Amino acid sequence: DVQRSLVLVKPDGVRRGLSGEILRRIEAKGYTLAAVELRQATPEILAAHYAEHEGKPFYEPLVEFMLSGPVLAVVIEGQRCIEGFRSLAGATDPTVAAPGTIRGDLGRDWGLAVQQNLVHGSDSEESAAREIGIWFSGLG
Ligand code: CMP
């Protein structure tokens, strides 16, 4: 199945100048960039995007981190790209993410309240449709 997935280069990735490297890995894998936009998130966008994490201990610091600078919002396209991008991204915790992955090669623990783990990728077709609609209204 050709899928679309919503990928975010989080504020740590943009700040560190890794947007190009991350897009390069997505394109080198063979996925297409269907939309790319540098955006400042808003509390409303993040409340929708992270609705499932509301109430968790890391929720407030997560929202604060995601508001700390612009994010690169990206829609990628390709066969099984949802699973494929999560494989490219690596485990949530960059300390243990496998070498070869975005988080494993480029990320580490900075001792902060939230895992600053460079990227987000949708975890299912349902989340992808929902998240693309949040970040790119009209594209969902
Ligand atoms: P993401 O895939 O964007 O979804 C939720 C985010 O919360 C996750 O990436 C991390 O940035 C962060 N996160 C998830 N679990 C934890 C945790 N246990 N402690 C701190 N931050 C977390």
UniProtKB/TrEMBL annotation:
The gene designation is ndk
* Phosphoprotein as UniProt keyword: yes
> What is the source species?
Nocardioides renjunii
PROSITE patterns the record matches? NDPK, NDPK_LIKE
* A Pfam family annotated for this UniProt entry: NDK
Q: Where is the Nucleoside diphosphate kinase-like domain?
A: 2-140
This enzyme catalyses:
a 2'-deoxyribonucleoside 5'-diphosphate + ATP = a 2'-deoxyribonucleoside 5'-triphosphate + ADP; a ribonucleoside 5'-diphosphate + ATP = a ribonucleoside 5'-triphosphate + ADP
Q: What molecular functions are annotated in GO for this chain? A: nucleoside diphosphate kinase activity
Instruction: Report the leader peptide range.
Output: none
**Cofactor field:** Mg(2+)
Which InterPro entries does the annotation name? NDK-like_dom, NDK-like_dom_sf, Nucleoside_diP_kinase, Nucleoside_diP_kinase_AS
What residues does ATP bind to?
K10, F58, R86, T92, R103, N117
Q: Does the keyword Transferase apply?
A: yes
Relate the protein's function as given in its record: Major role in the synthesis of nucleoside triphosphates other than ATP. The ATP gamma phosphate is transferred to the NDP beta phosphate via a ping-pong mechanism, using a phosphorylated active-site intermediate.
Q: Under what name is this protein listed?
A: Nucleoside diphosphate kinase
Stated EC number for the protein is 2.7.4.6
Q: Where in the cell is it found?
A: Cytoplasm
Q: Which UniProt keywords apply?
A: ATP-binding, Cytoplasm, Kinase, Magnesium, Metal-binding, Nucleotide metabolism, Nucleotide-binding, Phosphoprotein, Transferase
**Stated family:** Belongs to the NDK family.
